[in-house]
Design goal:
single chain, six-stranded mixed β-sheet, globular, binds guanosine-5'-triphosphate, binds magnesium ion, GTPase activity, nucleotide-binding, GTP binding
Length: 204
């Protein structure tokens, strides 16, 4: 028979970095452009299939607004995994992520598997390099291609990046975290977070 274990996972991070959007992409493969802030926390579940077993994630999506900070221990208590999210276009959100990692490393289960996710990477990439399904704009760009030089399009979005990938990756390595850059909008890196965490959860 197939093994199936339940894994309690918590998402933490500054308000509006995209925690709920990451979960919505993982659970429903959807994206909402104007997602409302989470109040308190939301609970969702999703299965994750590995070669040798199936995990059932029980996901606590916490609210990032500061007034909810004191609720967080209720959600990370007994959690086997955490995804700490920041926004690659907002440097302060990485600093907030680091404080969450410290809190988890002091107060949560000592064996907790923590992943750091730099979200909204679609905002700092030229759309042509995005691996997502082609968008309607893609067709327009194809029409314009003969008239418009390519370099201009890439230069402007790149300036939105406030957190270099190398900086966050070096921090994650030093702190012992899994690391991903993600986009809840395109889906880039989302399944990977949950699959790589699953591989690190010990078989009971
Ligand atoms: P709180 O619940 O208040 O803590 O916020 P949150 O971290 O859950 O953020 P949420 O998922 O609500 O997303 C905030 C805004 O960012 C929404 O308007 C989303 O549509 C947008 N957003 C989330 N992820 C992405 C992404 O990967 N790319 C882009 N371009 N926008 C995103
Ligand atoms: Mg939310």
């Amino acid at each position: 028979a197939e093994r199936s274990v339940q894994v309690k996972l918590v998402l933490l991070g500054e308000a509006a970095v995209g925690k709920s959007s990451v979960v919505l992409r993982f659970v429903s493969n959807e994206f909402q452009a104007n997602k409302e802030p989470t109040i308190g926390a939301a609970f969702l579940t999703q299965k994750c299939r590995l070669e040798d077993r199936v995990l059932r994630y029980e996901i606590w999506d916490t609210a990032g607004q500061e007034r909810f900070h004191s609720l967080a221990p209720m959600y990370y208590r007994n959690a086997q995994a955490a995804v700490v999210v920041y926004d690659v276009t907002k440097a302060s959100s990485l600093e907030k992520a680091k404080t969450w990692v410290k809190e988890l490393q002091r107060q949560a289960n000592p064996n907790i598997v923590i992943a750091l996710a730099g979200n909204k990477v679609d905002l700092v990439q030229p759309s042509s390099s995005s691996p997502a399904s082609p968008s309607p704009e893609g067709e327009e760009e194809a029409d314009d291609a003969t008239a418009t030089p390519g370099e201009g399009a890439a230069a402007e979005p790149e300036s939105l990046r406030q957190v270099p990938r190398e900086e966050a990756e070096a921090y994650a390595q030093e702190a012992g975290l899994l690391f991903f850059e993600t986009s809840a909008k395109t889906g880039e890196g989302i399944v990977e977070i949950f699959t790589e965490i699953a591989k690190k959860i010990p078989i009971e």
